[in-house]
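so my prof wants the structure for this chain in the C-alpha cells format not the other one, which i didnt know existed until like an hour ago. anyway here's the sequence
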Amino acid sequence: MDKSVTKSSSEFISKDGSEWGEAKQWYWEGIRCHWRVLGRDNQKPLLLLHGFGASSSHWRHNAAPLAASGFCVYGLDLIGFGESEQPSQKKVPKLDNQIWAEQVAAFLEQVVKTREHGAAVIIGNSLGSLIALTTLFFKPELVSAVIASPLPDPALMQPTISSRTLWWGEIRNFLVKIFFHILPLEILVPLVSRTVIIKTALQAAYHSSIKSDKELQRLITKPAKKKTAARVLRSMCIGMATRKREITAPVLLSQISRRSTHSPILLLWGRQDNLVPLMIGKQLVKIHPWLDLFVIDETGHCPHDESPIQFNQIVLNWLATSLVVDQKQA
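here's what i got, hopefully its the right format
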C-alpha cells in the first residue's frame, strides 16, 4: 500500500464531513474492510473506532481537527458495519470484541504499520471503546493510549460469575444460539431500518434532538438496509452474548492494572448518557484510580458527535499530557 500521498486536514472532506479522508479497502482473513485516512503518514497514528450500528463516517466532526493537530487519522469500519463486508455465519460464525480486536490489531500492523510509525492512539465510541480496550490487552505494543467514550459492557453491571454457575452458562449459551436462530431477523431488521423505529433508537443515544440531522440518519440507516444486515446482526448477538468472561471489560481492566506498565486510558462520558450511565464510569475510576475520567455536560452517548468541540479539546489536551508522561515512564 502506498501511503506517500500528503493529505491536508481540509482535503477529501465532504460538505457535511461524513466522507472525510481518503477511502480505501483492505482484506483481512478474506474479509473486505473499508477504511479512511487523513493526515501525513509521518505523523503519529490515531485510529478512530465507531460504535454499534455506526461507521467511520460517524467521526465526521473529529477527523479533520485531530489531523490538523498533528495526527495521521485513520478510521476503520469494523466487520459487519459501515462499508465493510457483512460476512455470512459460515465465513464468520460469531462476532465479539476479541474478533474485532484481532481485526484492529492486524490493521495497525499491516496498514498503519506501527513498527515504522509508532504505536497508535485509539479512540473508541461505545462498542469501539470495548474493542480498543481488548486490543490494548492482547497487543499492548501496538497501542500508546486509549480513549473510551464511553466504555460499555453488560458485565460492568452484572455480579461476578462464580465457577459454580459455569454449567448454567453453557446451557444459557445454547439457549441464546437457539433463540437468535429462531428469531426472524430477516423480517425484523428491514422493518426496523425502514420505519421510524430506527430513528427513535438513534435519538436515545443523543441528548439534543437529531430530527434535522439527515446525514446522521442516513449514515446509520444505510448499512442496516443491506440484504446481509440480518445475518451479521445474528452473528453479533450470538457472539457478544456467549463470549468468554476473560474478554469482558471488568476482567480486561483488572488484568491490565496488574501489569507493571501499561498505556494510559481516558474515560470520556456524556453526563446525560441514558444508554451507559455515568455511574458506571465513576465506579470504574473508584476501582481503578489510574483511569482518567472527563464528563461533558448536555451530552448523551455519542460525545464525539454531539459535542465535538469540547470532545476534541479534551482529547487533545489529555493526549498532550498523557503521551509525554507515558514516554518518560518508558
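also thought this was worth mentioning. The chain has 13 helices and eight strands.
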